[in-house]
């Protein structure tokens, strides 16, 4: 199997997994901001792990033990705002990867037709 055949499907999978992880980080950060004043609220975090052999990442939400809030705590607000902006940039970068792969495959098909 050629290198281009191997990279075509894995590039899309890597980009899509990155987009899903970025969306989950954005959702989690927004959840933390929205609930910062809720009594007994516990912050959430996202853990990302690489998918060996497949490429891309797996992401899952967990309770942020270091960020436990008793309600009314805006101490992590700046951190959450930065996380939201980074998630948007990460999503856009992964989207560009998927779009580039699509253009390359389209060009390849055009030259073979």
Describe this structure in words.
Helices cover 60% and strands 19% of the residues. It is of the alpha+beta class and 113 residues long. It has one domain. A hairpin with a 6-residue loop joins strand 1 and strand 2. Helix 1 packs antiparallel against helix 2. The N terminus is likely disordered.
Q: Percent of residues in beta strands?
A: 15-25%
**Termini, distance in Å?**
21 Å
Per DSSP E runs of 2 or more residues, the count of β-strands stands at 2
Structural class: alpha+beta
State the shape.
elongated
The side-by-side strand order for the widest beta sheet comes to 1-2
Largest sheet: 2 strands, antiparallel
Unreliable segments of 5+ consecutive residues = 1-8
Topology:
Elements: H1 3-34, E1 42-50, E2 57-68, H2 77-112
Antiparallel strand pairs: 1-2
Keywords:
single chain; 113 residues; alpha+beta; two-stranded antiparallel ribbon; 2 strands; 60% helix; elongated; disordered N terminus
Quick structural overview:
By secondary structure, the chain is α+β, with helices and mostly antiparallel strands.
């Amino acid at each position: 199997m050629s290198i281009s055949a191997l990279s075509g499907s894995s590039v899309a999978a890597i980009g899509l997994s990155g987009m899903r992880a970025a969306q989950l980080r954005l959702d989690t950060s927004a959840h933390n901001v929205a609930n910062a004043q809720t009594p007994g609220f516990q912050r959430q975090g996202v853990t990302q792990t690489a998918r060996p052999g497949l490429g891309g990442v797996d992401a899952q939400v967990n309770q942020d033990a270091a960020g436990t809030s008793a309600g009314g705590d805006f101490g992590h607000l700046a951190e959450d705002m930065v996380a939201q902006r980074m998630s948007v940039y990460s999503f856009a970068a992964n989207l560009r990867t998927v779009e580039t792969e699509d253009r390359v495959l389209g060009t390849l098909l055009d030259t073979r037709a």
